[in-house]
Design goal:
Layout: E1 3-10, E2 17-24, E3 31-40, H1 43-50, E4 59-60, E5 64-72, E6 84-87, H2 96-99, H3 109-114, E7 125-126, E8 146-150, E9 154-156, H4 161-167, H5 173-185, E10 192-196, H6 200-209, E11 216-221, H7 224-228, E12 237-240, H8 246-256, E13 262-267, H9 272-280, E14 282-290, H10 302-308, E15 311-314, H11 322-334, E16 344-348, H12 352-360, E17 366-370
Helix pairs in contact: 5-6, 8-9
Length: about 375
């Protein structure tokens, strides 16, 4: 049965994000109708609205959300109406990467997350004038009161309604930061870890780094106000890189380790200058991991790679498989070991513009929008 919902959309690249009524077709066999409890927003939503991401306007935004299943398609067997769920990215669960536990590298990742269509290529969403909208952003397009999502996005959780509002933020950025440390770097105790970017992803990586008993965790950013907002006990130190060239950044980082260099550098920004600086600041056998937008052209020394045994690699979603990473993050949070909720700021459903202004002003890390918070 067809349904409608208010949702946040971007109609043209660089235009405003507006709240519109969207008409949805009935639920497909591998889809869910989800009543949204809360959703969060990250840089990928803003990039998509600007027309500089994989999926472009006209688009229904949203890819970090939590809610309650209201209807399940005929082929959905693991979820039923009434289940509480956290949403993450979509994957096919059939290709060799999905079957060997590497869902972020699903062979169908683009079609399922960035095609703007259902998996069969059909259009499921139209605006009030009947014009087709790009939907299924990360398989969900969940910045609305009700969302039509691919079943692979949904992960059942047992929690209170207040907890579910917090868990809405776990499906992408926080998961990526944690995964970069625990899945990709896998640092042994007493490792030194540098993190470029003091946004949500970077601070989530720093929170995860503290779980590994590091010798130091340094967060680097050009914005001093963002560095000052980092919760106490997350980083052992910070570095403002404002006005510094890549060589100067590398020198300052190496000086923090008595010239030895860092064992791990996590790049949450995706700028070539930072990749280069991080690589120059590596200790022998060290690793740079990029989890932000892809760098333009990084100039990495092959000699340093060879003679120092150094590594540079990228990572999608921090190599995280949501069916395991989401319950792990929740368990760590409940035990007091991963206080991601310190990064959250809550807004009403209609306060998107205010949240965007707060983000751009560097006042908050992660906005979470609660649907029925009067």
């Amino acid at each position: 049965m067809a349904f409608s919902s208010e949702a946040y959309v971007a109609k043209e690249p660089g235009g405003p994000i507006t709240l519109e009524t969207i008409q949805y077709d009935g639920v497909g066999k591998n889809e869910l109708v989800v009543e949204t409890v809360a959703f969060s927003m990250c840089a990928s939503d803003l990039k998509a609205a600007q027309g500089v991401f994989h999926l472009k306007p006209p688009i229904i935004l949203g890819h970090e959300s939590a809610g309650i299943v209201r209807q399940a398609g005929s082929a959905v067997s693991h979820l039923r109406p009434g289940d509480q769920i956290v949403l993450s990215y979509s994957h096919c669960r059939k290709c060799r990467y999905c079957l060997q536990g590497e869902a972020p590298y699903c062979e169908n990742i683009t079609a399922l997350n960035f095609s703007g269509r259902r998996s069969d290529g059909s259009v499921a969403a139209h605006d009030a004038l009947g014009r087709p909208m790009n939907h299924s952003f990360f398989g969900q397009s969940s910045m609305g009161r009700v969302a039509l999502v691919h079943e692979s996005c949904a992960h059942k959780v047992e929690c209170t309604l207040e907890e579910l509002k917090k868990f809405a933020a776990l499906g992408c950025g926080i998961q990526t930061g944690l995964g970069a440390i625990l899945n990709v770097c896998k640092p042994p105790p007493l490792s030194s870890i540098a993190i470029f970017g003091a946004g949500t992803v970077g601070i989530a990586a720093a929170l995860a780094a503290r779980l590994t008993f590091p010798s130091r965790v340094v967060v680097i950013d050009t914005a001093s106000n963002k560095l000052s907002m980092i919760p106490e006990g997350v980083a052992t130190s910070t570095l403002s890189s404002a006005g510094l060239q890549e060589g100067e950044i590398a020198d300052k980082l190496k000086a923090m380790t008595e010239g030895r260099g860092f064992d791990y550098v996590v790049d949450c920004v995706g700028l070539a200058q930072l990749v280069n600086a991080g690589h120059q600041a590596l200790a022998p056998r060290g690793m740079v991991v990029t989890i932000g937008g892809p760098p333009e052209t990084a100039s990495i020394s092959l000699a340093a790679q060879l003679l120092g045994g150094r590594t540079y690699r990228g990572s999608h979603q921090g190599d995280s498989v949501p069916s395991t990473s989401i319950p792990m993050m929740i368990d760590l949070w409940r035990k007091g070991h991963f206080p991601f909720d310190k990064l959250l700021s809550f807004y009403r459903f209609n306060e998107l513009e205010k949240a965007i202004l707060d983000l751009k002003a560097g006042k908050i890390f992660k906005p979470v929008f609660v649907i029925n918070d009067n």
